[in-house]
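Re: How this chain folds, sequence and tokenised backbone to follow
How to read it: Take the token row as a discrete description of the fold.
Start of record: The labelled sequence and token lines come straight after this line.
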Amino acid sequence: MGSSRLGLLKYRRFSHSHPSRPSSFMTAPPSTIDTSLLDSAMAQSYPQSEGMSLQVTVHIAPENVDKFLAAFKPVFDKVAAEPECLFFEVYRSPEEPGKISWVENWSKGKEWFLKHQITKEYYKDYLNATEPLFIKPRESRVLERAGPDFYVCKEKSFVEKL
């Protein structure tokens, strides 16, 4: 798997394999994180800048999307409340109803993320509830900022409060 399909969040499971999931996927506890692909991708990238963007895609059977989103929402709220989380948005594919992607922008880098963020307890319930819904392995990648010349943030969001 190349850096474009980085397996940052390749969790493994003790109990059973999902019938549509490769048997090599998820064979240890959810708290185990395989960071070798992340380390490899980061070594081939620009020098570490402050902050990073994590882009994740999961594939869920269309009839389970609402169930996934209901289990995802509590961890979304907790992650978004973290002071280092600068941006968090979830997207749905109009062409593939079960394809859900999200982007998390963080003020801290990869090492901090692996040591302080992904190890938080609130991920466990989310992972236990959602991983059985995956019909393909989770895809993720880490991107570094290109620098201040390539950044814009508009004051008004497209989402308006009701």
